[in-house]
Amino acid sequence: MQHEIQSSLIDHLRKATSLNVVWVYDGVTLPESEGKTYMTVEQLPNSTSILSKGREAVRTIYRFQVGLYAKTAAERARKQSEVLRILTFDEIPLLDTAVPTLDVIGKLDAQVLAETPITPTGVEQESRYNRVYFDVEVDYVMHRRK
User: Fold this and answer.
1) In this structure, are residues 39 and 83 in contact, taking their beta carbons and an 8 Å threshold?
2) Is 136 within 8 Å of 116 (Cβ atoms)?
3) Helix (H) or strand (E) holding 49
4) Cα end-to-end span (Å), the chain
5) Residue 34 three-state SS
6) Who contacts 102 (Cβ-Cβ below 8 Å, separation ≥6)?
7) Do 107 and 91 form a contact (C-beta atoms < 8 A)?
8) Is 94 helix (H, G, I), strand (E, B) or coil?
9) Closest CA to 10 of 92, 126, 99, 109
10) What is the value of pTM for the model shown?
C-alpha cells in the first residue's frame, strides 16, 4: 500500500498544480539547475497499530514530506496556499500501481500536520531559497478478511 499511496499523492499533485513532482529516494537528482518551481514527495517513518482483538484490523499511518521549491518568495507563498488547499480538501484517487493502466481503486484523504519554511544554509545555494515542507499523513486501515 505504501507504493500506491505515494504514487497517488505524486500523481494528484502533478495534475492539480501542473508542476513537476519528484519522487525522492536514495540517489535521486533534483531538477535544481532548471530554475523552475517544482515539488518533491519523500517517505517518512510510518506507524502501525492493532485496532482489534485477533489482529482483525490494523491501522497504518503513512507519513510523507511534501516539498515545494519556488523561484520567489511571493510565488512560494501563493503556491504554498494552493498546495495546502489541495492536500486538505481534495479526495485523492488511490491508484493501483500493480497494473500498467493505474486503475483507480479508491480514494484517500491527506492530513497536513505542519508547514515548515526552510532557509538555505549558504548564500551559494540559490536553488534552495524559497522552499517549504508539508508534513502529511494518510491513515489506512486494513482488515484480515478482504
Assistant:
1) yes
2) no
3) strand 38-50
4) 14
5) helix
6) 7, 11, 95, 96
7) yes
8) strand
9) 92
10) 0.88
Give the residue, 55 or 109, on which the prediction is more confident. Answer: 109
- Whether residue 85 has pLDDT greater than 70: yes
Which cell numbers hold the place of 86? 489541495
Give the position of cell 488547499.
85
pLDDT for residue 76 is more than 90: yes
Cell readout for 93 is: 484517487
Summarize pLDDT for 42-61 with one digit per residue, the tens. 999 999 999 888 888 999 99
Q: Which three cell numbers stand for residue 65?
A: 514530506
3 closest CA partner among 39, 38, 40, 41: 41
Q: Which distant-in-sequence residues (6+ apart) come within 8 Å of 91 by Cβ?
A: 107, 108, 109
Half-sphere exposure of 32 (CA within 13 A, CB side): 12
Matching residue, cell 532557509: 119
Q: Are strands 38-50 and 20-24 parallel, antiparallel or unpaired?
A: parallel
Quick count: other Cβ atoms within 10 Å of Cβ 54?
Answer: 7
Whether the pLDDT of residue 127 is over 60: the answer is no
- What's the rounded Cα separation, in Å, for the pair 89 and 92? 9
